Amino acid sequence: MRLALAQMDCRVGDIAGNARRIVEALQAARAQRVDLIAFPELALTGYPPEDLLLRPSFVRAAADAVRDIAAAAKGVDVLVGLPWEEEGRLYNAAAWLHDGALSACYRKQILPNYGVFDERRYFVPGDEPLVRRVAGVAVGVSICEDLWVPQPAAAAAAAGARVLVNLNASPYERGKERLRVDVARRRALAHGMAVAYVNLTGAQDELVFDGASFAIGAGGALQVAGRAFGPDLVTMTCTEGVFVADAPAAVWPEGEASVYAALQCGLAGYVEKNRFDRIVLGLSGGIDSALTLALGCDAIGPSRMMPVMMPSRFTAHMSVEDAAWEARRLGVPLATIPIDTVYEAFASAVGPYWAGPGQSVAAENLQARIRGTLLMSIANAHQALVVITSNKSETAVGYATLYGDLAGGYAPLKDVLKTDIYRLAHYRNSLSEVIPERVLVRPPSAELRADQRDTDSLPPYEVLDTFLRGFVENNEEPEALVRAGLDAAVVERLVALVRGAEHKRRQAPPGTRISARAFGRDWRYPITGVYGTKM
Questions:
Q1: Cβ atoms of 390 and 421 closer than 8 Å
Q2: Tens digit of each residue's pLDDT (9 = 90 or more) over 356-376
Q3: DSSP string, 462-516
Q4: Catalytic residue among 10, 144, 238, 265
Q5: What is the DSSP secondary structure assignment for residue 410, as one 8-state letter?
Q6: Cα 214 versus chain centre, distance
Q7: What is the rounded (10 degree) CA torsion for 355, 356, 360, 364?
Q8: Whether 435 contacts 270, CB under 8 Å
């Protein structure tokens, strides 16, 4: 059997465009004498379509489109993901197209409802396997989460399947591509059944889909690997449970290279799919903005980047120098707008109402809000997107200013802890030096008052990030973190800061998700509440 896995970037809601790209891919597969081509989960609608699924016209449009695809698919069997309604029930389905018609439909059995997934809001589960013969081979079908539990694969094997094709919209997390391979290998070894895994690629809002489609032979060996972070038509021959690829296996990036590629994919996808011409960002001379500038240049090109340096009386001379150096190294013009005059005008206007216990904090925040206003104004004039440079460590504890450095449309580093920022900066410099060495070694500072350091307000980032990996990403209890070695008073204070910053996070822009638990779809805590603020 000749098989193709069509790893695609499918745009949410663009049913006509997705259908056109599907037809183009199956025509390319037909030219390579493929018997069966498989597309990702919900390829016709993009993933996740969310509440578009509640509109009957949207579901009908997908059904009409799949029939048009079937008419173009003569000579090639096709598996394509779409929402499918029967008798008032909506399924996350895979349509099997054969000989110009929709000949069968598989309904996803295991509907994930955790983390970023909310499928039970929209779909009902199926309960039957689907096995069809292609070129003499019995092929079973499953969709994404079906592979992660034993039952659907076992049912397909019991129905005679010798090859299982799994359609996916599996979001990126660090190291997840190896987990997918391990799960597929377990199913293959349990049933002596080869497994082909096709995944979505591209970005949708906060989610990145890394592709990395693959095939596992019936003996458990990884025999085919598609590229990561990009479209691919992965073609192969399957003979008695053994896959032989038409091209050498792709090498998937690992470690910081993988994370950087995901961040680049997420930012590029958000800019392009939302039709922004340029990116505007504040370049401060610190490590977060330096990494964000490099990321933006790599994602959409230096000619579309508009960094702005906005120094105040508290901005160190080396910050001004380093920002200018970064822009030159990346070939980007740097605008400079001093803010002291604007600050004095604001301070004069608000002066009669400023005498209070929080005046010093208000003065610091005013600087950040002036900068946010300037960036938004520039962006309006250029049909541009303001990207903010805040990282996960700052966002977690509220070390950011509402309507200031949180003002913007996208946050590329939203799910990146500060200690990982440094690792990514070193990685990016290993490709070409774009971040000065002294930015990597100087103590981080918001530079909103004289001689300010982040450690004036926060514990060292090594301590803070250890806490956040446990408390936020792994959902560990504070007491467990103390038993693991963190200071009890520090843990109690950080828990209170995380809880108290919820209102800020709700108003912060979306950003690329790279961890198993990001602030966004994964994190749904109440703003008003006291549970867990004290140990």
A1: no
A2: 888 888 898 999 999 999 999
A3: HHHHHHHIIIIIS---HHHHHHTT--HHHHHHHHHHHHHTHHHHHHSPP----SS
A4: 144
A5: B
A6: 20
A7: -80
A8: no
Give CA separation, 226 vs 20, 123, 212, 425, 441, in Å.
22, 30, 5, 28, 38
Cis, bond preceding 510 (omega within 30 deg of 0): no
Integer Cα distance of 419 and 428 in angstroms: 15
Across 427-448, average pLDDT: 90
Give SS3 for 59.
helix
CB 284 within 8 A of CB 326: no
* Mean pLDDT value across residues 162-173: 97
Q: Which of 348, 371, 353 is nearest to 447 (CA)?
A: 371
Query: pTM of the predicted model, to two decimals?
Result: 0.94
- Residue for token digits 């605008």? 335
Interval 381-400: pLDDT, tens: 999 999 999 999 999 999 99
418 counts as catalytic: no
CA proximity to 4, closest of 26, 23, 22, 20: 26
Active-site position among 108, 392, 418, 504: 108
What are the structure tokens assigned to 336, written together? Answer: 């400079």
Domain extent listing, the chain: 2-248, 257-452
Two tokens, residue 414 = 């939203």
Whether residue 74 lies in the annotated active site:
no
pLDDT-derived band of residue 451, with 50, 70 and 90 as boundaries? Answer: confident
**Of 39, 23, 85, residue with least CA distance to 58:** 85
Tokens read off for 341: 């005059």
Task: Copy the structure tokens of residue 218.
Answer: 């019936």
Q: Which of 10, 41, 238, 394 is catalytic?
A: 41
CATH code matching the domain that covers 2-248, chosen among 3.40.50.11540, 3.50.50.60, 3.60.110.10, 3.40.50.2300:
3.60.110.10
Cβ–Cβ under 8 Å, residues 495 and 533: yes
For 529, the 3-state DSSP assignment is coil
Q: What is the mean pLDDT of the chain?
A: 94
Tell whether domain 257-452 is in CATH 3.30.565.10.
no
Q: Is 108 a catalytic residue?
A: yes
pLDDT tens, position by position, 201-219: 999 999 999 999 999 999 9
For the record, the structure tokens of 332 come out as 């980007």
Torsion of CA 95, 101, 104, 109, to 10 degrees: 10
